[in-house]
Amino acid transporter heavy chain SLC3A1 (Phoxinus phoxinus), 679 residues
Amino acid sequence: MSSIKITNIDTVELQEGAQNAAFQEDDDDTSEASSSREHQATSFSFTGPEETVYTQIKPYAGMPKEVLLLYSSKACYRVPRELLFWLVIACTLALIATTITIVALSPRCMSWWQLTPVYQVYPRSFKDSNADGVGDLKGIREKLSHFEYLNIKAIWISPFYKSPMRDFGYDVEDFRQVDPLFGTMEDFDDLLTSMHDKGLKLIMDYIPNHTSDKHIWFQLSRNGTEPYKDYYIWANCTADKPPNNWVSVFGNSTWEYDEIRQQCYLHQFLKEQPDLNYRNPRVIEEMTDIIHFWLKKGVDGFRMDAVKHMLEATHLRNEPQVDPNQDPSTVDTEFELYHDYTYTQQGLHEILTDWRIEMDAYSREPGRYRFMVVECYDYEEIEKTMRYYGTSYAKESDFPFNFYLLYLPDDLSGNQAKGLVNLWMSKMPKGKWPNWVVGNHDKPRIGSSAGKEYVRAMNMLLLTLPGTPTTYYGEEIGMVNVNVSVIQDPFGKDDPSNGRDPQRTPMQWNDQLNSGFSDNETGTWLDIAPDYSTVNVELQQADPDSTISQYRALSLLKESDIVLSRGWFCNVWSDVNVFAYLRELDGLKKGLLVVLNFGMDTTTDLSSVSELPDSLTVHLSTVPISQKTFSKSRIPTSRGQGLLLEYSTNQRFHPNHASECYVSEKACYLPALDILYKC
Ligand code: GLC
């Protein structure tokens, strides 16, 4: 047994490599005993002659506590120890303070849906992999490199659920199955996996308002089987007298008499699309389960269809006519009534807010945020659209689609462009994220409604405004509407002027058979556009000045340039021809000026904009030009031209023109550290 024996107060005998049994005992002592010994040791180390004795002993591991205390109180040990102690405390505090400062000063990181354009794929028309003339999921998978080429990372795919295709997939027979026309669930899983492997996000179409009349719920509802009896909206009526004057979006009464149930059911779209009854909690549960089903599969978000139609007033009163003098029996279109009882009813936002909460539960892993966008045409009641952003206490969609740029061709001009952009920016709730749509499967292609010569300027507008742009397939190459030989769209069959086939024709990949869309020798579901041999992806990719090459250049710039992704947007000019705006960021000398011509050839004089330097460098022009720089007092643009100019200045425009400028989330740039901070 090792030991250290204290023989008397003058001599200390240390046995080499040993421990004193007395000290071992100490370990087991009560704290009172040990503290009394500590006291002795302390007082003992400070008393006269003993000190000399103990100072002759060199400290080493295993020394008795008294000796240790004696040495540890010596300045040469104590001072460095205390210094180190305070250093550790100071470093810890500094680290905490730095962390808090960084967190407090860092602007919020942007989510994936803010950093990329959204690309809409209409699956029937994108790529046919099995030569049946209709596009499918495998076809989309074959073309993933197209999105990579365009630098687009979010793909919204219009419905591919099992469907009788009366409204081409917007009439769902089974929300948990893929329609065989588009492939199998395995094809879907493969597509999703391949997309995720490539860093692409998949946004599904989700259709809450209605199902197909072939859906099992409707079949059971019409024969009164519980619990499905009230899954849809039924009212007493006779075959020739509907319950009220409500009209469908597709025209005529919203009510259809059902022989089996001998009642009328409500349909705000086709009669083959009966409206679900959201006053029935079971319906909400069922539809929520479907959201879970797809989120569990790993989809990255939903585009929610026709949400304003989800609830109707239960009293079923007639809606007021827009023209009170019109013969009520002639009222048969959506625009002849005020939809006080069928659109945006109370309770709607609560349902959407709850769905957002469900989606948030799947959004916790980094990079796995599940995105939600809603479709709502408010027809100029923009406050109604803005409400879908949610409120300060309840989050709702990430954004409602902004369809206002679709009105640009109605009065194509610089002033109109400015008006529409500013309408959204001025009405959008503070801190929310803007978005821009210039086309979709329901609206004429911008190349037709505005004119082919404006497509590039539209794309430049879309990709240089702050926020998320949505590009409908084919807009990147300037596809236009096609007068199809056989009408397929039920809306168009009823009234050809409303037909949506012209904007749904197959994607133009190359100048081969069926524009490379399909190998079917006998044709495709809709005609191929006659211009496909000159307007196609392959040809345009080979040309650095083509519409697609410019789209790509802008999309890459949007991602890489913080002025575009985080900077201020400010109006600087608009007239009948030109809309000009700048993008700038505090702390950064570089700014971008965008000059878009939506009218005729003109020259714009911006000499009154004192914050701009005189010389502006051409970054991109949608039409070939030889000039590399412009003076701000003479910026010539031709009809349909888009010009992206770069400049350097120490002066910011926004502090002097607050009413012309917007930013979603203010951030400043610190060049010394190459970082952004909240300011
Ligand atoms: C949405 C879709 C449209 C469809 C309608 C009914 O508006 O975009 O294509 O016909 O809803 O589902």
In short: Residues 1-50 have pLDDT under 50 and may be disordered. The CA atoms of residues 121 and 157 lie 5 Å apart. The first helix runs from residue 21 to 28. The first strand starts at residue 4 and ends at 6.
